[in-house]
Amino acid sequence: MIILDRVTKLHGDKVAVDHLSLHIKPGEFFGLLGPNGAGKTTTLRMITALTPPSVGQITINGHPVSRNNTVFKGQIGLVPQHVNLEPELTVEENLRLHGMLYNMKRDEINRRLAELLEFTELTAERHALANTLSGGMKRKVLIARALMHNPSLLLLDEPTVGLDVFSRRRVWDLIKSLNTRGITILLTTHYLEEAEHLCSRIGLLKKGRLIMTGSVEQLRNMVGPVVVEVFARDRTRLYFFRDQAGALDFASGLTEEFTIRQTSLEDVFVKMTGERVENH
Amino acid sequence: MNGILAVLWREYLYFKKRIWSITGSSLVAPLLYLTAFGWGLGRAVNMAGVAYIDFIVPGILALSTMNASFNAVSTPLSIARLYDKTLEEYLVSPITLYSFAAGKILAGALRGMYVGLLLLAVAFVLGANCKLSGLFLLLAFLNCLVFASLGYLVALKIQSHPDMTRFNSFVITPMIFLCGTFFAPEHTPAPLQLLIKALPLTPASQGLRSLALGQELSWYAPALQLLYLVVFIVWGLRASHKVE
Ligand SMILES: Nc1ncnc2c1ncn2[C@@H]1O[C@H](COP(=O)(O)OP(=O)(O)OP(=O)(O)O)[C@@H](O)[C@H]1O
Ligand SMILES: [Mg+2]
């Protein structure tokens, strides 16, 4: 279980994360969403002790998070937003090194290595240097690396950026299956259909503040499950309604083109985090 | 302990992959010094009954082990921290910062010893006289540890790559020439002499020279080196706790 208790992170006098309180329960699949600069990466960096909170406390499975606490670190697998493989080591060497850092036995390393290379379809690239891989392949190595030591908590910072559709779906299947096996997952992404497809609970961050949490269903109901999308001359406006009837009633008075549909996570996201928020 | 092994293994892989460029680039400067100052200039010079070449071999050993150990840690670690971000992989992993620092510093010092031993071999082949002993090698290794830990500290402290270049130009390069490597510090004016004797490379060049020429080793040399070693390591560990 991850507990963030009124965590604030300042960079100078700039607030990156603002009084963030969050409980992520064991086995949960939590999606942290928000526009660029909302504080998602900063939050993950604090959870992994890469940077300390300016104010507030984080605990993982009862262990306070700090750089010197090696106990909780062994339980975490991190896929960082930026590729940070050892560029001049091969794929295999990168994964092996990870296994050694996580104190794995040699045969265990060999076994996991084979499994994960096969799973990520990187067996052919096993002996390729990391800096010679394509962007998507590097991401796959990052994911394989994070899984090497069988973490009980997986933190994924935009793990599917740059992956082709097939690889992305494979990764979805993989992390979904990991989650059903009991691994707790915290994911950030800009692909809202990814979050919709995977996450059991979602938190929306805006300028460092958690403005909403809940399941996709709950978030939809909070803003209104039915949306009327109106195509005005220069931009699209969204109007949310409790039910179909209300939406129809509103739409009948419109002169512009419009569509009525079920509210998607993207609509919620745009309404809650966008500057161009429209209300009815 | 596992952490140290993992870090050492990584350093070993890099060393293996780059062995020729590492060997070449760390031997060029010392060989030039040997040639220009030792055999070129040095034929005409005699330092209190000692051939100049025999006088400067320990000095060149001191400066080249300094350079090799410092550079083995400083630039790669600063790149890992500022550009590749590979440092984060270690910070996130369950190894202690002590293992990480120990692994990096030890690997850097071993790299320094590798260069040092190659240099000694060349100097011997070319006919320099230098009394080798266990203590002599120990002192050289101590010098390697001092500058590997300085490299560790500097890599964690600087803000950008140009900072590293500046540190090299303003601290490392002056020491190459100042620290009694090519001359006896006693020949300089008193205030300068005091400064020179306090710099971390001086005890290495002085101590190694005493042993190489079969003279007695004064306690000042290893004591000052150990002092520097402790300061750099403690400071470096503090920096590791704060690095982001
Ligand atoms: N090292 C830093 N120094 C100063 N400001 C920083 C630093 N790291 C992050 N910030 C600031 O903190 C805020 C949050 O950044 P963060 O990287 O957490 O956003 P994010 O939600 O991950 O964005 P993205 O979707 O673009 O990855 C931003 O305003 C950013 O400029
Ligand atoms: Mg981010």
TrEMBL record, chain A:
InterPro entries per record: AAA+_ATPase, ABC_transporter-like_ATP-bd, ABC_transporter-like_CS, ABC_transporter_ATP-binding, P-loop_NTPase
SUPFAM superfamilies: P-loop containing nucleoside triphosphate hydrolases
Pfam families: ABC_tran
Every ABC transporter domain range: 2-232
GO molecular function: ATP binding; ATP hydrolysis activity
Keyword Transport: yes
The keyword Nucleotide-binding appears for this protein: yes
Keywords: ATP-binding, Nucleotide-binding, Transport
Family annotation (PROSITE patterns): ABC_TRANSPORTER_1 (PS00211), ABC_TRANSPORTER_2 (PS50893)
UniProt family annotation: Belongs to the ABC transporter superfamily.
Name of the protein: ABC-2 type transport system ATP-binding protein
TrEMBL record, chain B:
Subcellular location, principal: membrane
Classification via InterPro entries: ABC-2_transport_permease (IPR052522), ABC2_TM (IPR013525), ABC2_TM_bact-type (IPR047817), ABC_2_transport (IPR000412)
GO molecular function: ABC-type transporter activity
This protein's UniProt keywords: Cell membrane, Membrane, Transmembrane, Transmembrane helix, Transport
UniProt topology in membrane: Multi-pass membrane protein
Residues annotated as domain ABC transmembrane type-2: 21-243
GO cellular component: ATP-binding cassette (ABC) transporter complex
Localization per record: Cell membrane; Membrane
Record has Transmembrane as a keyword: yes
UniProt keyword Cell membrane present: yes
Membrane-spanning parts: 20-42, 49-70, 112-129, 135-155, 167-185, 217-237
Family: Belongs to the ABC-2 integral membrane protein family.
Name this polypeptide is given: Transport permease protein
Organism classification: Bacteria, Bacillati, Bacillota, Clostridia, Eubacteriales
